[in-house]
Structure formats: C-alpha cells, structure tokens
Amino acid sequence: MTQVRPGLSERTASASPCRPPSTTSTLSDGIGPVWHRADASVAVLTAHYAHLVGRPDDVELRRWLVTRLESINDPRREQYLQLLAVVNGWPAPKSLTAMFDWSIQALRVRAPQWRGGREAAWGERD
C-alpha cells in the first residue's frame, strides 16, 4: 500500500502530475500545440488534472493549470533538480521544459477568451 501524506488521497499520491498519458506522446510525435490534432491531448491533460484536484474541467481549471505550469517551468527549478542529482549521486533528471512549454502554449491557444488578460489564481473569485 502506498504511504500517503495527510490530506492526499492514494489516487492523488500515486498519479504523475507532470506527465499525463498522451501529452508526452503527442510531443514526441511532433504534433504542434496549436494544431487541431493536439485537441485530444489537451482534453486528456485537463481531464487528468481535474480528476487529480477534484475540480471540474472548466475555464477556471485551465487558468489555474497555465499559472501552475508557468511557475514550474522556471529554469532555476531544473538547475536545482540537476544539482540535487549530482550531490546525491542520482541519475540526472530529464528536462521537462519542452513538455511544459508545449502544454502552456496548447492551453493558451484554446482559451482565447482569457489569453492576454490577467489570469486569476484558482479560488480568487470564490
């Protein structure tokens, strides 16, 4: 049985928040984030996160997801993880920058009603 932090369900703890199933294959297949062929992957991505956080797959979730992915896509984070690997003798982690860039652009291009405007943090209007 998986050891779960208080407040997290076993489902949330065991899921991979960084790599929903079809996003990585779409990226490796060379499908651009603005292409219509990417629509299904974006739907899988948003449904995956909606399930993980227990919220509906709506505009608010997509705004939150873009904000979250942008904050995670900081080059300092990647440098920190590489340094951790060196210090601890772990294998170097693969870069997720291309996946984060693809996901952010794919979400933004499908949300013209809020692209360019200020994106509220989740719960800001609650």
Description:
The chain is mainly alpha-helical. The protein has a domain at 39-118. 55% of the residues lie in helices and 0% in strands. It is built from six helices and no strands. The chain has helices spanning 10-14, 21-28, 39-53, 59-72, 75-88, 97-109. α2 (21-28) packs antiparallel against α3 and α4 runs antiparallel to α6 (97-109). The longest helix has 15 residues, at 39-53. The protein is globular. The protein starts with 9 loop residues before the first helix and ends in a 17-residue tail after the last helix.
Short description:
It is built from six helices and no strands. It is mainly alpha-helical. The longest helix has 15 residues, at 39-53.
Described by the principal axes of the CA atoms, the overall outline is: globular
**Radius of gyration, in angstroms, nearest whole number:** 16 Å
Report the average pLDDT across residues. Answer: 78
User: What gap, in angstroms, lies between the N and C termini?
Assistant: 36 Å
- Indicate the proportion of strand residues: under 5%
The count of strands amounts to 0
Structural category is mainly alpha
